[in-house]
Design a protein that fits this description.
The structure is a single chain. By secondary structure, this protein is of the alpha/beta class. The protein folds into two domains: about 40 residues; about 220 residues, Nucleoside Triphosphate Pyrophosphohydrolase (Alpha-Beta Complex), CATH 3.90.79. Helix content is about 35%, strand content about 15%. It contains ten helices and eight strands. The strands form two sheets. The chain has a five-stranded mixed beta sheet with strand order 4-1-6-5-8, sandwiched between helices. α4 crosses α5 and α6 crosses α10. The longest helix is centred in the first third of the chain and has 17 residues. It is globular and about 55 Å long. The model has no long low-confidence stretch (mean pLDDT about 90).
Length: about 280
């Protein structure tokens, strides 16, 4: 995927920044009390002009869902009790949504799509880019800062290039979107998932991306403290559900013969929740 470099002016940069920070044009207008000197249509055209891929879902709700589901698994108490005890009134994900996710996990089905990217430098292919999730910013939800691979929601109709670009723009190279230097050239138009992992009710496609060592200035409104870690180092940090399984599975497949069969695994969270008594749903 290629894109001619166009550097946005300060006004355009501010609008792009607001979009990448809040995740949707509607949310930006809402936060600004609909006091913006552009229309919805103009805003869409601006994002298209600079190659910004539109969001496919609110990552904050993904983080909230995974956190509450982890609490249910840890404490073995009903969802409603966990929600009342740990969830502030500002929580975006609803109990109805969480009940629906739990139901889908029990059935072993997914209803949404996502993408995760295993990113390494050319000189250190056994070390993977992680960063701390800062979307859980309410202490009553637990301490923010679980380490995550760059990942996010995708749309069913997205091709691999679109899915990868969206994640990189929102979680790895946000500042490069703002100065017009986003590295579209890093993304192969023939990229294919290595395997899939079911996390909550999301079927996450896992991609591999090797980048030149010169790319070491990472930025995001959703993640902070980007760093590279190998599989062994994951044992010493708190990681988001699914991350350990993704790295473990990739290491298992890394030197194995390539298979044409689609590989799908379940996260440990899904396996644990599917075995809990139904009364906890």
């Amino acid at each position: 995927m290629t894109q001619n470099r166009i550097e946005p002016n300060e006004f355009e940069k501010n609008l792009i920044s607001l979009y990448l920070r809040h995740g949707s044009i509607e949310q930006v207008f809402n936060i600004k009390n609909y006091d913006l000197p552009v229309s919805f249509a103009t805003y869409h055209r601006l994002l298209n002009k600079f190659g910004i891929i539109k969001s496919a879902g609110p990552n904050s709700r993904l983080s909230e869902s995974l956190h509450v589901l982890s609490l249910i698994n840890n404490y073995k108490v009903p969802l409603e009790r966990v929600y009342r005890k740990y969830a502030p009134h500002t929580l975006k994900v609803s109990t109805n949504t969480l009940h629906r996710i739990m139901h889908h996990i029990r059935l072993g089905v997914t209803r949404r799509c996502g993408a995760a990217i295993l990113i390494s430098h050319e000189s250190s292919k056994d070390r993977y880019l992680l960063a701390q999730d800062v979307s859980l910013n309410n202490p009553s939800l637990g301490e923010p800062g679980d380490f995550s691979l760059p990942m996010g929601h995708t749309r069913m109709q997205d091709n691999s290039t679109t899915s990868i670009t969206r994640v990189l723009q929102q979680e790895v190279f946000t500042n490069k979107c703002l100065d017009g230097s986003f590295p579209f050239n890093l993304i192969s138009k023939n990229a294919k998932p290595i395997f899939f992992i079911n996390i909550a009710d999301i079927k996450v496609a896992v991609f591999r991306l090797i980048i030149p060592d010169k790319y070491n200035d990472f930025s995001s409104f959703k993640l902070q403290g980007h760093c590279f870690k190998n599989q062994n180092e994951l044992q010493a940090i708190k990681i988001r559900p699914g991350v350990g399984e993704i790295v473990e599975k990739y290491e298992e497949l890394r030197f194995a013969p390539q298979s044409n069969t689609e590989i799908v695994i379940n996260s440990k969270l899904n396996l644990a929740l599917s075995e809990l008594p139904e009364r906890l749903n």
